Amino acid sequence: MIAYEDGLKIILDSVNTLGTEKLPLEKCAGMVIAENAFARSDLPPFDNSAMDGYAVVAASTRGASRESPVVLRFIGDIPAGIAEPCAVGPGEAARIGTGAKVPGGADTVVIVEDTELKGDEVWVFREYPPGSNIRRAGEDFTAGERGIDAGTLIRPSEISFLAANGYKEVEVFRKPRVGILSSGSELVDHGQDITGAKIRDSNSPMICSLVEKYGGGPEIHGIFPDDERLLTSFITEKADRFDFLITFGGISMGAHDYLKTALEKGGARMAFWKVAIRPGKPFGFGKRKETLIFALPGNPGSAFVTFEAFVKPALFKTRGFNPPYGEYLTATLTDDFPKKEGVTVFCRGNLEGEFPAYRFSPFKKQGSGMISTMVATNAIMIAPAGSQRVSKGETVTVFRT
Questions:
Q1: 60, 65, 58: which is closest to 109 by C-alpha?
Q2: One-character DSSP codes across 90-129
Q3: CB 134 within 8 A of CB 116
Q4: 280-296 pLDDT, tens digit each
């Protein structure tokens, strides 16, 4: 039986980043960028107005107030998009729209609320210092500046940067193809009625949604009965289609647990079969040619935890993310949590608060087959192997789910 840290290292050492592809910008959200992205121009490209108002010389507003307004000569309009607006001199004002180019001579913009237009006069009711309400050229970024690092998840904000700099296509890491296989003669599809000793397969839909959540391309291959020949045939004929193959159940010590044997007969070279964790002890990892094999336990709580602890970091690495492969936080434990020494426990619970004062409350129910606590869970605490107890008030490591 292998320790959690050793098992995770073996997995991550076995993971290679997938190849890249160019995608149209509108299809890049949720992908990981494969190359640094640089600004191709200044933003803003020219000094422009941050508000609707009047472009003026700041000195012309000196002493202005509601009781004693300054009167300036109105010389025209400057809408957005005009390349060479009229120049503004002392004692003059040009009406300007938000985003419009600041005209020559003007050094400030007086907002509409502090003015009144009366015929060909602009009355100003407040004194303004130079530079007010002007966005300077290049104040956001300048041409050549690195805006996005390779290995960054492309969110809507990254889409905005790329669009502002004229990227029509972006080099991104390919999404991993993930095959999902459930085994067990007791299982029926989640949409079916249950009779006798049958139970619904909740693992396949759950893991499919987790794979999608973390950026993989899942493909469910249904439920296989406890039949070594059928399982071996699938692994031999289909496993090479995937970057990851995730299986459930059939790897423990039961008389009808055939998946372990089927994987080995199907050509998988397994690095380990058991991990010193709870829940999720019967978890296996290996490879068949270039396909990574993750053999998850059949209990839903165990499948959920082992996916979060082992499969998710592997997905992040193969997608091209920069390490660490997941969001690990520190929090204060709100209650004592007893555990078995020598075993790393993944404790489901509730994370509250804000950085740096997170609080983690462990749930009382931690059974490997319990789904209700998975529904309530928003984070998992990693209780290290070298203790029998994690005490209230201690600082603990958690990751969000």
A1: 58
A2: TTEEEEE-TTPBPPTT--EEEEGGGEEEETTEEEE-S---
A3: no
A4: 999 999 999 999 999 99
